[in-house]
Design goal:
- The N and C termini lie far apart (73 Å).
- The protein has four helices and five strands, in the order ββββααβαα.
- It is 37% helix and 22% strand.
- The chain has a five-stranded mixed β-sheet with strand order 1-2-5-3-4.
């Protein structure tokens, strides 16, 4: 099997995911998964597509990540892995990944700050007198 490439995005994070047949090693920006995401919840988020499809330990993953925070990056990697698995075998994995909601790009972005306000929606305190 050759290398499969997919792109995952979430908030400001962009993950380029490369999937090859292997032993289940996950490398993110030349660091191990445990090193890059020390929190177990984020490691769980990254591994969710493999758990749902039952392919844990069958593929090696190499990820190039940029932008965003840790949570957004982990969810971007999850989307990239799910898309790459779909490219490998659509009939086997697409239905389960779609049912779990891993193929949907979360389009929510940070709303911009407006002029004359301290934040995006927050207004300065109103004073009647």
């Amino acid at each position: 099997m050759e290398q499969t490439h997919a792109l995952g995005r979430r908030k400001a994070a962009v993950a380029r995911v490369y999937l090859t047949a292997g032993k289940g090693n996950i490398t993110i920006n030349d660091r191990t998964l445990e090193n890059y995401f020390p929190a177990e919840t984020l490691q769980y988020v990254v591994n969710q597509p493999f758990e749902v499809t039952g392919t844990a330990g069958q593929f090696d993953v190499k990820v190039t990540l940029c932008g965003g925070g840790t949570k957004g990056q982990a969810e971007a990697v999850r989307l990239g892995i799910a898309r790459a698995l779909c490219e490998i075998d659509k009939e086997a994995y697409r239905a389960t990944l779609k049912a779990a909601g891993f193929l949907t790009r979360d389009a929510r972005e940070v709303e911009r700050k407006k002029p004359g306000q301290p934040g995006a929606r927050r207004r300065f305190q109103f004073s009647k007198r």
